[in-house]
Design brief:
Shape: globular
Order of helices and strands: HHHEHEHEEHEHEEEEHEE
Helix content: 25-40%
Number of strands: 11
Strand content: 25-35%
Strand order of the largest sheet: 3-2-1-4-5-11-10
CATH superfamily of the largest domain: Vaccinia Virus protein VP39
Oligomer: single chain
Structural class: alpha/beta
Largest sheet: 7 strands, mixed
Amino acid sequence: MSKKDWFVDWFDTSYYHVLYQNRDDQEAERFIQNILTHLDLPENARLLDLACGKGRHAKFLSEFNHHVMGVDLSPNSIQCANEFAHEKLRFQTHDMREVLENEQFDVIFNLFTSFGYFDDESENKRMCDSIAQMLVPGGRLLIDFMNAKKVVQHLVPSEEKMLEGLSFDIKRSYDGKHIFKHIQVNDNGHVSQYMERVQALFLADFLALLESNFKIIDTFGSYDLTAFDEETSDRLILLAQIKE
């Protein structure tokens, strides 16, 4: 791993999990139900949750009688996710830029803005190429990303949060290419500094990135699968199919 890979340390800290502890599980479950209804998969489909975090989406995917694998770079996240593991749900520590050997999937999910983390944009292409190699013929890819245009237009420059006795001082900025979040954590006088940096990828960027391996089937703008509108939608959700 390069020292530039900011996510290696941050995603594996307890502070990260405290800051994002209030993610909406009901919203996630509703989204999974909506997208699986739309996909209309046969029973026992093979699904991969790529960058699964602590496994909440993978858990919901497995409740629809599919074989689900969740992978994430963070050992701490996978340790938490393993509490959900069962016969049809397994987890593994893995870098999403790499191919999982001897694994093939009907659908690969990349959810909750788990894309665009890398310093070198060529790594995005590397990730897409790896995904293509792990899909069966006719397999599909679902990417759930922020609507970067709306996020940039409504960026909150700073905020403070107190959670579980920890003080979080958060600063946000946009440099024309990346959205930054600088996070200072005060833990009983011990101050730590972290950063999140996500590429501000727009619909046109994804279309260009995916065109060599995939054809876009649908674009949605919300977890209710409403049509995508670059000015008003909260999410950019792309459903693509591997080219034959």
